[in-house]
Amino acid sequence: MSSSRQTQGETTMRLGGANLDQLAPGIRRPAYDRSRVTPGIVHLGLGAFHRAHQAVVIDDCLATGANAWGIVGASLRSPETRDALAPQDHLYTVAVRAAEGTTHRVIGALLDSVVAREKPAALVDRMADPAIRIVSLTVTEKGYCHTPQTGDLDERHPDVVHDLNNFDAPRSAPGFIVAALARRRAQGLSPFTVLCCDNLAANGHTVQRIVTQFAALRSKDLGKWIADNVAFPCTMVDRIVPETTDADRDAAAAALGMRDAWPVMTEPFMQWVVEDRFAAGRPDLASAGVELVADVKPFELMKLRLLNASHSALAYLGYLAAYETIADTMQDPHFARLAAQVMEEAAVTLTMPAGTDLAAYRASLLKRFANPALHHRTWQIAMDGSQKLPQRLLGAMQDRLAKNLPIATHALAVAGWMRYVTARDEQGRAIDVRDPLAAEFAGLAREAGPVAERLAPALLGVTQVFGPLGAEPRLREAVTAALGRLYKEGARRAVETLVSA
Length: 501
Fold this sequence. Notes:
Layout: E1 39-44, H1 48-52, H2 54-62, E2 70-75, H3 80-85, E3 92-98, E4 101-107, E5 110-115, H4 120-128, E6 134-137, E7 146-147, E8 152-153, H5 158-165, H6 173-186, E9 193-196, H7 203-218, H8 220-229, E10 235-238, H9 246-256, E11 264-266, E12 271-275, E13 291-293, H10 297-320, H11 326-330, H12 333-347, H13 358-369, H14 378-381, H15 385-402, H16 408-421, H17 438-448, H18 452-460, H19 463-466, H20 473-489, H21 491-500
Parallel strand pairs: 1-2, 1-6, 2-5, 3-11, 6-9, 12-13
Antiparallel strand pairs: 3-4, 7-8, 10-12
Helix pairs in contact: 4-6, 6-7, 7-8, 10-12, 10-13, 10-15, 10-16, 12-21, 15-16, 16-20, 16-21, 17-18, 18-20, 20-21
């Protein structure tokens, strides 16, 4: 039995396989014998979202006797998650928070973890093992080393350059996938399925293009073999998962009666829509509530343009208005109306299957955002905006412009992002901008100064984000005007003016 750090009032017991029977009453635990489970999935990007979403589904599948589908998790860079979970046999807690209270569940689907940067060859070995039939990913948009506007591999990305010169010791997700598939091909083994669970437009098709482009730079034959033989199903994933705080760890310990170094916090809602196209089999995902469909695209656009777009609008403008969390932001009725208007503007750009109730879906999103038990920080959602804007906001803006419809609400959200990436808030305090292009944005902001007529065109000219849409006169006019209002009135007043018009 291992122990964790001890402070006053804490238990010294650490969550682990040997003490599951000592969990507090009412805590749900794995409903299967973990000793009989073997790995069938390698997951790249062992973060909180995967552990609160896909791993929970696989945990449910394992409970039906599907023992060959355990997960080996891989952190591409940081050892933090491995270091937290390895001493507790990779068990961890999912705390589901709602206004009515919190429930806790211990997940056993994760069997092992590796840190790619420490031993890249070891991760390639695991992925090349014929027992592995799915490689899934949650590496965030920036982890694919691509250009979001085009969906193509960024051949100048430092990790891509490195991986092309160090084929057996990669750093990037595409590099690991191609290295493992190349080995399986050389050994006459069948390929695994590549299952993207990130918010990319047409994520399966996009990852297929990135991976095959990378492989073709090594060998045209390898690129063709991957294109012809590897399945890349499209998916849509949905669950809000805030970052875990020390207070969350303490709350989980009190509920469990023992310490968990890295529990995850989430909401009751969860959705996973998957294109039913797998190269080497899959667990019975439908038994765990997954929607298996022939075409994911309508659901993907629905989520990106309704949930993710309004989330980003609340994040940037809410942060500027000094709201710490999305729930705090939603307490302001003007910001709640802002989220609803983003969804209203985007809804007319969607074509959904018969029977889809978009009004009910939008209402459910507003309720989820307002969940007072879920402390999802605006700063966390604001990360990596350069990678997110094309899918979340710009696509809907382009479609509305094509229909000659106004884009004022989306324009204010984009202007909020522009104001945010200047790295100074409305009180002149520094903003910790986390984005691959943060340095470029900061340079453009310094040169333009706090003048909307200079800053908006400068940022709209960043083709990695806006592509040719940045030159569209109606978009430039709307975004520049919105940014001017933010500088003149501040975020709260600008949002109030917009939604009251």
